[in-house]
């Protein structure tokens, strides 16, 4: 069968469409190229070394904890200013990018937060989050923070931490829970809870169809 000349260059369509998968898929085994990483400035903040310095200057661990958060927010402000990531900066407008910050395990014992595991509550963590949020409002930057809330004994403190963030999500694993044998979740490994969504420059935040999403992990086959 010959196709008319006017349709020869048109894209071909399958008579039986392939099976479409529902949802989003992410390959957690992928890593960034080393050349791409070496082409951008990367700064790190060692909590253990900074905490030891603060303990040498202060006998009380609570004061050392406050000093670590002060040093961290100072480093973040310097990175924003020196890198030209402030919204008022005119440095390299044609090649401006976004500063990406990652803070892992904030509020854990690594950061000197043993008091949250007990009944005593310190304002150092919430004060730091308030300063961080205010700093990023006038910067071309985004910050991802992980917090081990399962270590906090006071649910009210967890709510305070959530209120100081623009977006809050929580992962719930089915391992060891009653949902592991629930037939409703037999094809999934956990839930992705949307606790809080951003409300920037608007009166209300976006309301999704569901605040509880399911996730499933799959082992990747080795091509070797």
Strand tally? 5
Radius of gyration: 24 Å
| Overall helicity | 25-40%
Could you say which overall geometry the principal axes of the C-alpha atoms support? globular
**Category from helices, strands and their pairing:** alpha+beta
The ordered string of helix (H) and strand (E) elements is HHHEHHEHEEE
- Report the uncertain regions: 13-17
Give the neighbour order of strands across the main sheet: 3-4-5
Q: What does the largest sheet look like?
A: 3 strands, antiparallel
* Helix segment tally: 6
Q: End-to-end distance, in Å?
A: 43 Å
- As a percent range, the share of strand residues is 5-15%
Overall mean pLDDT: 80
How are the secondary structure elements laid out?
Elements: H1 34-38, H2 47-57, H3 61-82, E1 99-103, H4 114-117, H5 124-137, E2 141-145, H6 155-163, E3 168-173, E4 190-196, E5 212-215
Parallel strand pairs: 1-2
Antiparallel strand pairs: 3-4, 4-5
Plain-language structure description:
The protein has 224 residues and is α+β, with helices and mostly antiparallel strands. Helices cover 29% and strands 12% of the residues. The strands form two sheets. A three-stranded antiparallel β-sheet has the order 3-4-5, with no helix packed on it. It has a two-stranded parallel ribbon with strand order 1-2. It holds the Pfam family PAXNEB. Belongs to the ELP4 family. Keywords: Cytoplasm, Nucleus, tRNA processing. Pathway: tRNA modification; 5-methoxycarbonylmethyl-2-thiouridine-tRNA biosynthesis.
